[in-house]
Design a protein that fits this description.
33% of the residues lie in helices and 18% in strands. It is an alpha/beta fold and 352 residues long. The structure holds threonylcarbamoyladenylate and magnesium ion.
Amino acid sequence: MKATEIVKVDPNSPDIDEIKRAAAIIKAGGLVAFPTETVYGLGADGLKADTVDKIFLAKGRPQDNPLILHVASPDDILRVATEVSPIVDKLVQLFWPGPLTLVLPKQSHVPDKVSAGLPTIGVRMPDNIIALTLIAESGTLLAAPSANLSGRPSPTLASHVADDMWGKVDLILDGGPTRLGVESTVLDLMEDPPRILRPGSVTREELEDVLGHVEAQILKDERPFLRQVRPGGKYPHYTLDIPFFLVEGEPQAVIRRIQEEAGKYRSQAKKVGVMCSEESKGQYLGCADVIRSLGSRHDMTQIAAGLYRTLRDFETCNVHVLFAEGFSERGLGFAVMNRLREAARSRIIYAC
Ligand code: TXA
Ligand code: MG
């Protein structure tokens, strides 16, 4: 068990002494959890195999699930990737710093541990001053997966990190709630056309404006190669300790179906939770025990920002079962639906 410390840091003007202290921990081979614009990351020196090992151990993460390297400047790509094409330059100009991870050919000095033995490396420059200052002060690149126990929803608050990682991490930098709430878009540039391995806040539509056609993730792809590299493709993600059902379809059909299903559970004296849009929350009064709105179904940024926090909150509500409404897959909705489907796995109901 490590002695874990948590310190509050102003997300707009971080105290440089606190960041320097965190950087010293990284340089000494320790683990520091820090906020990014997407979710909290669990950072270690990404260029040393033994420190990277500590990340896998702390998270209980399978060794064949590669990590993203976080950089403080676009020039840092040249330290880890063998090739930077004009397309990469363009994507970096448009989307960095920001929630876009680029999968590029890896330089051989980058430990194989980071890429889980793949010949490629995922790289991203986060849009968060605390993260960027920490990387720069550490003088290295930070390998950083989401700072949750493997398989759990990603942390969007420092308290989520503390819940999962207390005693396993040296320091948690608490920079408040993360702005976007879902992890970065992972774009594989080794394929032609490029392929989205994980959708995120940089949307397929935005990428297609730059790249032309982009392959999007196929949820139940059985090709072994994609199973290894696609997040969630091999191991369960976003698992909760309560049965979780996702109900997809037209909003009115979804509402009716959740009302029906909730009625069945309640007739067996089971407590029912519903996670829904602001527009429909009134429809579940009287047929669910705990109702949480994620926000308007017309504002996916709000829905994404509150998604993981709300999922984690339901675990403390003592409900026996949780139903979630599905959303449109347009734009950021694609990322939100990807996470909801991963969480529900085989418990997806199509309402008609
Ligand atoms: O927003 C984010 O990306 C957050 C913050 C902390 O930066 N990080 C994050 O890391 O979500 P993680 O490890 O939880 O998810 C990264 C996913 C991995 O599951 C992996 O499948 C994929 O990115 N990935 C990383 N390197 C890859 C590579 N070389 N090829 C294919 N996929 C890769
Ligand atoms: Mg993760």
